[in-house]
Structure formats: structure tokens, C-alpha cells
């Protein structure tokens, strides 16, 4: 059977959908068993076509790995958005071309539309002052607009250790602030926030299991190799301890960073979700080609 014919079959479309789903959650598909009968040659030829077409399906666009889903953990609801730093364009947005803070997802989309691009998903990307200027370190498109704040201070931001989400070509990492200062990783985009949720596989030492402080919270975690990036927002108020455990125990990332609470908002183009709330400072999102 020719590849062009296989492409049109219902079997391939189902297979591709399963593969995309597995790809999004980091699960590898088990290979088909090798055929041992007279149809072995044809089966292998068909598998070669499936493999080629699947590569085109998964790798056909920069946004292919980015998606959001709702999950339940410890009887709490969260929305998880995943991206692949080797495929997806992950970027920060603060001001428009006139130097005015974007403040909304719509403003970012308007700016992207000029280049025939759009947000796939996005969320608030770090703490900010009343004028929407970042509280901590901020780099956008290689340009630093706020220095690193290495010392302890008031509020969640100053609850050390805090950290920096650093985006480079082909990888993204959550890095503890003092380690970031020592490493000087040369980020294309970076945003500092705090506290760290997970540090090298351990929860932040100040998080209490029986805390009564519950808010809608959002954050980001990264895999050890810097490829998998996982954004999360709680859909119900949660404690720091619960939110950190989501990243460590359910999402299995060694490092994760709290981005904000109470003001947390999510935009997800696929589901039509666009949370309403206060004007935002930094916005972080995955960008793809406009339809």
C-alpha cells in the first residue's frame, strides 16, 4: 500500500492521534511486534510509511508539542500545559511596540498577528509592580530590563530559595537564583520569581502540609535535560505544599518555580479558555503560526 493511501486511512488517523497524545505527555509508543508470517514484507513496508507520516504529523509545525489538559491530583483540579523546548517557541512578553505594557493576552495576540503568529497557550509570567514592571530579573529577546535580585526580601518573591525560568535555543530550565548567577547561562528570555516549588527533587523547606493559605496558583517546571517544559495552574485554591507536590510527584520534574498566586490566569486557544482578571505584567506563552 502506498504511503499516500495510508495517509488517508482511518487506521492511520487513529494511530496518529494516539501518537500525538502520547507525545504530549512524554510517553513513548511501544513498537509494533515484528511480523513473522508471509505478510512480513508488506507489513514492514506499511510500518515504514506509518513512521514517515508520523514524523511529518508530529514535526510538521513548531507548535506540535504544545497542548493543555485538565488533571486531578489529590482530589484537586489543575490545568497542565506542556511544551517541548526543542520544537516550540516559548517566549516572554511585557511591552508592546510603543513601550506600553501588554497587560492582556489579547494585546499579545494582536502584536503577534502582525507576523502571522498567535499564542497557543499563555499565562502570567512572574511577579510585577503596580506599573506592571517585573519585580525581579527579566530578559526578553536577549535584552535585560531588570537585574537579578539575589537577596531575601518580603513576600513570596523573597522566600529563598527563589529562581529564574531561563529559555535558551533548544532548551529551557528552572534554575535556583544563586546557581543562575554563578552559571550566567545566557538566556534569550528569563523571568525571576519565587519561591522555588521544587529544588533538585525536594520541596521548598518552608512549605507546610497543614498550611491554611490557599490561592489559585500557577508555576512552571522543567525536565533535567531542559527539553520538557510543564506549566500548571490550579483550578481550585491550593496550598504551596499541594502545588509543589503536583510538580514533584505527578509531573515528575526536578525543578519548578512559582510564578504567582491569586492573580494567576491562563489562555488556551484550543479549548477557548481565556481567564479574566487583573492587568498582567510579564506574560509567558508558546507561539505558533496563525491559522
Structural features, described:
The chain is α+β, with helices and mostly antiparallel strands. It folds into 2 domains: 3-59; 67-289, no CATH class. Helices cover 23% and strands 31% of the residues. The chain has 6 helices and 17 strands. The protein has helices spanning 3-8, 10-24, 40-59, 105-113, 177-183, 240-250; strands spanning 67-73, 76-84, 89-93, 117-124, 138-140, 143-146, 163-168, 171-176, 189-193, 196-199, 202-203, 217-222, 228-234, 255-261, 266-268, 273-274, 283-289. It has a 7-stranded antiparallel β-sheet, covered by helices on one side. A 5-stranded antiparallel β-sheet has the order 3-17-4-15-16, covered by helices on one side. Strands 6-5-9-7-8 form a 5-stranded antiparallel β-sheet. Helix 2 (10-24) packs across helix 3. The longest helix is centred in the N-terminal third of the chain and has 20 residues, at 40-59. The chain is globular, with a radius of gyration of 21 Å. 42% of the residues are buried.
Overview in brief:
With 291 residues, the protein is of the alpha+beta class.
| Parts with pLDDT < 50 across at least 5 consecutive residues | 1-64
Largest sheet: 7 strands, antiparallel
Overall number of strands: 17
As laid out across the biggest beta sheet, the strand order is: 1-2-13-12-14-10-11
- Note the gap between the termini: 32 Å
Determine the strand fraction and express it as a percent band: 25-35%
Helical residues, percent: 10-25%
Number of helices: 6
Integer count of domains? 2
**Mean pLDDT over the residues:** 85
Structural class: alpha+beta
CA radius of gyration: 21 Å
Amino acid at each position: 500500500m502506498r504511503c499516500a493511501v495510508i495517509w488517508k486511512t482511518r487506521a492511520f488517523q487513529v494511530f496518529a492521534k494516539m501518537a500525538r497524545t502520547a507525545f504530549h505527555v512524554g510517553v513513548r509508543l511501544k513498537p509494533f511486534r515484528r511480523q513473522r508470517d508471509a505478510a512480513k514484507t508488506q507489513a514492514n513496508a506499511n510500518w515504514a510509511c506509518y513512521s514517515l507520516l508520523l514524523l511529518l504529523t508530529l514535526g510538521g509545525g513548531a507548535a506540535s508539542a504544545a497542548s493543555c489538559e485538565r488533571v486531578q491530583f489529590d482530589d484537586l483540579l489543575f490545568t497542565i500545559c506542556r511544551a517541548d523546548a526543542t520544537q516550540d517557541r516559548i517566549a516572554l512578553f511585557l511591552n508592546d511596540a510603543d513601550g506600553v505594557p501588554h497587560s492582556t493576552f489579547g494585546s499579545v495576540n494582536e502584536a503577534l498577528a502582525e507576523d502571522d503568529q498567535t499564542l497557543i497557550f499563555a499565562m502570567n509570567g512572574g511577579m510585577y509592580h503596580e506599573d506592571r514592571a517585573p519585580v525581579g530579573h527579566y530578559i526578553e529577546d536577549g535584552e535585560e530590563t531588570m537585574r537579578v535580585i539575589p537577596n531575601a526580601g518580603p513576600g513570596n518573591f523573597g522566600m529563598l530559595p527563589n529562581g529564574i525560568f531561563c529559555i535558551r535555543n533548544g532548551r529551557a530550565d528552572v534554575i535556583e537564583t544563586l546557581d543562575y548567577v554563578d552559571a550566567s547561562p545566557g538566556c534569550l528570555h528569563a523571568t525571576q520569581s519565587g519561591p522555588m516549588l521544587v529544588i533538585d527533587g525536594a520541596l521548598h523547606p518552608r512549605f507546610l502540609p497543614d498550611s491554611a493559605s490557599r490561592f489559585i496558583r500557577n508555576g512552571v517546571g522543567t525536565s533535567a535535560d531542559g527539553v520538557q517544559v510543564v506549566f500548571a495552574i490550579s483550578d481550585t485554591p491550593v496550598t504551596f505544599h499541594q502545588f509543589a507536590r503536583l510538580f514533584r510527584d505527578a509531573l515528575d520534574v526536578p525543578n519548578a518555580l512559582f510564578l504567582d498566586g491569586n492573580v494567576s490566569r491562563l489562555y488556551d486557544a484550543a479549548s477557548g479558555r481565556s481567564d479574566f482578571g487583573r492587568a498582567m505584567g510579564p506574560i509567558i506563552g508558546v507561539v505558533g503560526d496563525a491559522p
